[in-house]
Every structure is written in structure tokens, then in C-alpha cells.
Here is the input.
Amino acid sequence: MKDQTCAYCMGGELLDKFGIKICDLGVSQLILFKEQSKPGRCIVAYKDHVSEIVDISDEERNAFLADVVRAARALHKAFQPDKVNYGAYGDTGCHLHMHLVPKYRGQDEWGGVFQMNPGKTFLTAEEYAEMIEKIKACL
Here is the structure.
């Protein structure tokens, strides 16, 4: 089931506005968030266009959360954050997904909620490619 207006469903230009697909996981896809003020920030998006975690079976939920944990472990290994914050939003884009936001002591927002779209740090194509390879190597 796909929504033609959903970046997670359709990929391509819609996804390119904010993310780069890293790879498929068990029941989801791992996406690098282009804005990298928190190095390693990613999104785990469920494979189907569902709005809520309660819209999937227990087995599907467990598999989705296993993907989130797999991605988080890779981020810890690749970037050694002091903490990873997890955000499950979707007021405007109703596709089940979770933001994984590595946090580092001494950076802005430590001890507070991360900004959704701070618009501060964007990388070159080469830097994105290097970051993606680093994450893949740790999955």
C-alpha cells in the first residue's frame, strides 16, 4: 500500500528534499537525514504506508522496532554519540517512521528536545556517501 504523495512510499524527488536512502532493513528502510547538525541523524521508515504503530500487528511492530534497534546500534558504533534521541512524529506526513538523532554533550540542544529541521548543516555529496558507507559498515 503506497501513498503517491508520501516521500517514504515514493522515494525519488520527494525523498531527495530531506533524505537519502541508505538501505532496506527487515520491514523498513533506513534514510540519512540530509540536515546533519547531529552527525549520523537518520530515519527508519516502515515499509507500508500506515499512520500509527497501533495499525500494524504485534509481529510487524516487533520487526519494526528491531530495525530501529539495529540502526541505533550502527549509529552508536559509527559515531559514538553520548545519547540517541528517538522521535516518532507524523502530524503532517502520516507514515510510520522514527527519527534517530545522535546527541553529543557540549552541542546545542543537549538536555533538550532536538529541532526537527534546524537547517544548519548540509554536507557535500562525497561527505554524504562517506557517512552512508560508515553506517552500512556498522549495520
Summary: The chain has a mean pLDDT of 93. The two ends are 27 Å apart (CA to CA).
